[in-house]
Design a protein that fits this description.
Length: about 300
């Protein structure tokens, strides 16, 4: 029985140490040094090899090395094979930091001040207390809920939206298409933290922006596929949106000729809002392998019909 890791090899060495120290009964190898393919039962991969079923016929579980599974072509992964998302405290912590930073930056008009600084312009903007700022979080999975918990102590008025009904203390939770309008109409800072599925692809488009209060701003930290980039540029230029903080792009790396790079009201980072942390991720996978071997449900098991 072998566990194979196929992702960033530098971080893989940390996985190797943790497995050796904390799970010596689980032999661990780093791709491409997989040993006998017939003995590989668990694969941790961002991108699994093509022909997974033929290559690793005894595989029991495929673990995504990241929080998302949209990079996987689920149709090409054997139907019987459980696929598991990465749920680990390092990813949650990174996302919480980034979302809190981005919302505070938008709340305090930092994109506007960066632009003004470039032009040597000293122009204070009215400061509103957080209690007067309405933040909306789209996507109420583990990451969305953790971001809300971090924002709440500032006193923001927070609402959430997701496909299915959630109940979160102190947060107005909206569910499904029927309640999307009410959610958008009150969201001055919109944080998109959803899984990318056929239903959510392109959801951040001109139609959605038009339903936000005029001058709203957005944070996209889920997937670039949610955002229709030309619609964002038009909404910024027309004043419907005032700023955007983007960590994920439709095409990554973002092409050097993209107008997103130089737009005065866009701040962007190269998909670094949150990263799988090898120490905590290795422990999360060890715990899941133990659950699987004990016949217990694994944390983060993907519902293929739902797509996450
Ligand atoms: C990164 O985007 C991840 O899915 O972990």
């Amino acid at each position: 029985m072998t566990v194979v890791y196929k992702s960033d090899p530098v971080r893989g060495e940390v996985w190797r140490e943790i497995f050796a120290r904390e799970a010596p009964d689980l032999p661990f190898r780093i791709w491409p040094d997989i040993g006998d393919p017939q003995s590989v039962r668990y694969l941790v991969a961002w991108m699994p090899p093509p022909d997974l079923g033929a290559l690793l016929p005894k595989l029991d579980v495929l673990f995504s090395a990241g929080a998302g599974v949209d990079q996987l072509d689920l149709a090409s992964i054997p139907a019987h094979l459980p696929v598991v998302r990465m749920i680990e405290p390092g990813i949650v912590g990174g996302m919480v930091e980034f979302v809190a930073m981005a919302v505070l930056m938008l709340h305090r008009d930092i994109p506007a001040y960066v632009d003004q600084q470039r032009r040597a312009q000293w122009q204070p903007i009215r400061v509103w207390p957080a209690a007067r700022r309405r933040v909306g979080v789209m996507g109420l999975g583990m990451l969305g809920r953790a971001a809300i918990a971090a924002l709440a102590p500032f006193g923001f008025e927070i609402a959430g939206w997701s496909r299915s009904r959630h109940v979160i203390d102190g947060v107005t939770c909206h569910a499904g298409d029927a309640e999307l309008d009410a959610f958008l109409a009150r969201s001055e800072i919109l944080v998109a933290l959803m899984a990318l599925t056929p239903e959510t692809r392109g959801i951040l488009d001109a139609k959605l922006f038009a339903r936000l209060p005029r001058g709203a701003s957005i944070v996209n930290v889920g997937r670039g596929g949610h955002l229709v980039e030309p619609d964002l540029l038009a909404a910024l230029d027309g004043g419907q949106l005032s700023a955007a903080i983007l960590d994920v792009m439709r095409t990554e790396p973002l092409p050097t000729d993209s107008p997103l790079w130089s737009h005065p009201r866009i701040m962007l980072t190269p998909h670094v809002a949150s990263m799988t942390q090898p120490e905590t991720a290795a422990r999360a996978v060890i715990a899941n392998i133990r659950r699987h071997r004990a016949g217990q449900p694994m944390d983060g098991l993907v519902d293929r019909a739902r797509g996450y």
